[in-house]
Amino acid sequence: MKHFTKVNILGINFLNITQQTFLNTLEQEINLHHNCFVVTANPEIVLLARKNHRYQQIINHADYVTADGIGIIKGAKILNQPLPERITGYDTMLNLLDFANRNHKKVYFLGAQPAVIKALIPIIQQKYPQLIIAGFHDGYFKDPQPILTEIKAAQPDIVFAALGFPKQEYFINQYREISNSLWMGVGGSFDVLAGKVKRAPQFWIKHHLEWLYRLIQEPSRFKRMLALPKYLILIYREKFARHKKRKA
Ligand code: UDP
């Protein structure tokens, strides 16, 4: 594991690096067959970790935790500990797929609904023909054993776990020792890559409105989106607490 400076935001330690440096680092980790756990954390993950100490420990014991989403970047700025840029799970996954394709790496795909993972595999084969598919499984299993047996036998270079948080982090934390792979939770990324949900067009991303685009697509996410204002209130509270401490 390489060491970089970190920025603590409400209890989670975020890597203070650019997307390019991060990608280079992960490529090295893969080439060296290091066992590596990557979390791209958004404000929802930060909030859950504040409530759930076990989850917080798991995240902070991951090898690399990056700022997924504008909320983390804004929070860091408000706390006067700026982070250079967002490093999202989806972009990191796409970059790693590209790397895997160029270098004939083996990848295991775990997660999403059965129909989504089934649709995803031919898309991967077509877009990344040199990548080796080590195996795949949907994310709605009761018994993880057959999946673990498959991963252990294949020893993939990368395991993407699209089980949503916190399930994917619990899963990786519990089972990562079975294979010296890069393990990464990618949330709803398989849904996007398989075309089930659309990612916001550049315009929306550029204007920091990706959240609004997602809300329009999936109105059922409304309750989840209340996490953002809640998170910002905590950020400001933290800012004033630090300010008071400095003055005292
Ligand atoms: N999922 C899964 N198993 C579960 C629960 C969820 O595979 O037991 C999948 C779900 O099908 C979806 C992803 O996990 O593909 C979670 O998507 P969401 O958009 O909620 O994740 P986010 O990117 O917001 O963390």
From TrEMBL:
Keyword Transferase: yes
UniProt GO MF annotations: N-acetylglucosaminyldiphosphoundecaprenol N-acetyl-beta-D-mannosaminyltransferase activity
Catalytic class of the enzyme: transferase
Domain of life where this protein originates: Bacteria
Keywords: Cell wall biogenesis/degradation, Glycosyltransferase, Teichoic acid biosynthesis, Transferase
Known EC number: 2.4.1.187
Any one of the GO BP annotations: cell wall organization
One Pfam family per UniProt: Glyco_tran_WecG
InterPro entries documented for this protein: TagA_TarA (IPR034714), WecG_TagA_CpsF (IPR004629)
Keyword Transferase: yes
Pathway: Cell wall biogenesis; teichoic acid biosynthesis
Catalytic reaction list: UDP-N-acetyl-alpha-D-mannosamine + N-acetyl-alpha-D-glucosaminyl-di-trans,octa-cis-undecaprenyl diphosphate = N-acetyl-beta-D-mannosaminyl-(1->4)-N-acetyl-alpha-D-glucosaminyl di-trans,octa-cis-undecaprenyl diphosphate + UDP + H(+)
Function summary: Catalyzes the conversion of GlcNAc-PP-undecaprenol into ManNAc-GlcNAc-PP-undecaprenol, the first committed lipid intermediate in the de novo synthesis of teichoic acid.
Protein family (similarity comment): Belongs to the glycosyltransferase 26 family. TagA/TarA subfamily.
Alphabetized PANTHER family for the sequence: PTHR34136, UDP-N-ACETYL-D-MANNOSAMINURONIC ACID TRANSFERASE
Protein name: N-acetylglucosaminyldiphosphoundecaprenol N-acetyl-beta-D-mannosaminyltransferase
Species in which this protein is naturally found: Candidatus Ligilactobacillus excrementigallinarum
